[in-house]
Design brief:
Elements (H helix, E strand, L loop, with lengths): L9 H20 L4 H14 L3 H12 L10 H14 L3 H14 L4 H13 L3 H15 L12 H14 L5 H9 L6 H4 L13 H22 L5 E5 L2 H10 L10 H17 L5 E5 L2 H10 L9 H11 L4 E2 L25
Parallel strand pairs: 1-2
Antiparallel strand pairs: 2-3
Helix pairs in contact: 1-2, 2-3, 3-4, 4-5, 4-6, 6-7, 6-8, 7-8, 8-9
Length: about 350
C-alpha cells in the first residue's frame, strides 16, 4: 500500500517537489535509467499533492516517442491509475485497472497497486477478486516459500478478506506463516480495531497504537527496502575490453571465469553473514569511463569499482540475488541458476 501524503507543513511539500526536479534532471543525464528515476520523481510529486504533474511523468514514460521503451509498462499504467483516481479521474482509472488485470502480469507489483487502489475506494469485492487473480496466477497454495515480492499480495488479500468476513483459506494460512509482524495478521486486520480509536480507555488506545506501529513497520519493510548491497558483474566482452584498455585492472580480474566465481562466492559469504537485500549490477566500459570522468579520476583505479557498483544500484540497475528457482542465472549463460552458479558447492 503506497502511503498517502500526510498533513505537513508547506516546506515538506516543497522538499518533495525539489527532489522530484532533481530526479528529473538526473534522468536527463542518464536516459537509460530514466524509468526508475522518473518513477521516483512521480512518487515525490504524488506525496506533494501535485498529482497532475505525476500523471505527466507517467505519460512521458509510456509515450511511443520515449528514447528507451519502459521495461515495466504495466507497472507504470497501474501507478497512473492509482494516481488518477486520487484526483477525481475515476472512470479513466477504472479503465486502466481493467486493462492491467486483463494483461495478467507476472510481476506482483502492478497487481498490488491496482488491488489496493480498489480497496482504498471501498471496492472490496473487486479488490478481493484482483488479489485472488494475482495469487492464483503467481502463487499456488502449496508454494512452500513464496518470493518476498509476493508477500504484499498475500497480506493484502488477507486484509480484504477480514474486512469481508471471509473464512481463512490456504493463502490466508500462507500469509500468516510468512508474516514477520509481532502482531498476528488476524489482529492487525481486525475490522473492529478501528472502533478502538474512539475509546477513552488508555489501555485500549495503547494496544491500538502498538498494532498500528506493527502494521506500519511491515509496510515500510515492503515498500522502503534499502538499495541492495551490489556486486559488480562484467560480461565477458566488456571485461576483455576493460582490461585491454586498463591493464592495471588485470590483478583485480585475472580471468572472466575467476570473476564470475568471485561474484557468487562473495554473495554467498555476505548472505551467510546475515547481510540482507543482495544484488548484482552489470557494468559496461563506456558507462564506467563516464563515471570515472564524473569523479575526476582515472578508470584504472581499482578502488573506483565498488563506487561504480553502488552508483548503478542507486540508479535502480541492481538485480536481486539469488535468482528465483527455475529462472536464468545472473551470469548470462542462458542456463537456469540451479544448473549454473546456483549448483556450485
Amino acid at each position: 500500500m503506497r502511503p498517502e501524503k500526510p498533513a505537513a507543513a508547506d516546506h515538506v511539500d516543497a522538499d518533495h517537489i525539489a527532489e522530484a526536479a532533481r530526479l528529473e534532471r538526473t534522468a536527463g543525464l542518464y536516459p537509460e535509467d530514466a524509468e526508475q528515476l522518473l518513477l521516483q520523481a512521480a512518487a515525490h510529486l504524488e506525496l506533494a499533492g501535485v498529482r497532475e504533474r505525476a500523471t505527466t511523468l507517467y505519460d512521458r514514460l509510456l509515450s511511443a516517442d520515449a528514447e528507451y521503451p519502459p521495461s515495466s509498462p504495466v507497472l507504470i499504467r497501474a501507478l497512473k491509475a492509482a494516481n488518477l483516481w486520487e484526483y477525481d479521474h475515476e472512470a479513466e482509472a477504472r479503465a486502466i485497472i481493467d486493462g492491467v488485470r486483463a494483461a495478467a502480469p507476472r510481476d506482483p507489483a502492478p497487481w498490488v497497486i491496482v488491488a489496493e487502489s480498489l480497496e482504498a475506494h471501498d471496492e472490496l469485492e473487486q479488490a478481493h477478486a484482483t488479489f485472488t487473480e494475482a495469487v492464483t496466477l503467481l502463487l499456488p497454495p502449496e508454494t512452500p516459500d513464496p518470493p518476498y515480492a509476493t508477500h504484499p499480495l498475500l497480506f493484502g488479500r488477507h486484509r480484504v478478506r477480514r474486512l469481508l468476513g471471509a473464512d481463512h483459506d490456504a493463502w490466508d494460512t500462507l500469509a500468516d506463516r510468512v508474516s514477520t509482524a509481532p502482531v498476528p495478521l488476524d489482529e492487525l486486520h481486525d475490522p473492529k480495531r478501528v472502533w478502538s480509536l474512539g475509546s477513552e480507555n488508555p489501555a485500549e488506545l495503547r494496544a491500538e497504537i502498538t498494532r498500528i506501529q506493527a502494521e506500519l513497520g511491515s509496510y515500510r519493510e515492503a515498500l522502503s527496502r534499502p538499495f541492495p548491497v551490489a556486486v559488480l558483474h562484467w560480461p565477458k566482452a566488456e571485461l576483455t575490453e576493460l582490461v585491454t584498455a586498463y591493464p592495471s585492472l588485470t590483478a583485480e580480474y585475472p580471468s572472466h571465469e575467476a570473476h564470475l566465481a568471485t561474484i557468487e562466492s562473495s554473495l554467498r559469504e555476505l548472505s551467510a553473514s546475515g547481510t540482507p537485500n543482495l544484488g548484482i549490477v552489470t557494468g559496461t566500459v563506456p558507462s564506467y569511463e563516464a563515471f570515472a570522468a564524473s569523479e575526476s579520476t582515472s578508470p584504472d583505479h581499482p578502488n573506483l569499482l565498488p563506487q561504480y557498483a553502488t552508483t548503478l544500484a542507486a540508479r535502480g540497475r541492481a538485480v536481486s540475488w539469488p535468482p528465483e528457482r527455475g529462472t536464468e542465472c545472473w551470469c548470462g549463460s542462458g542456463a537456469t541458476y540451479d544448473d549454473c552458479h546456483g549448483g556450485a558447492s
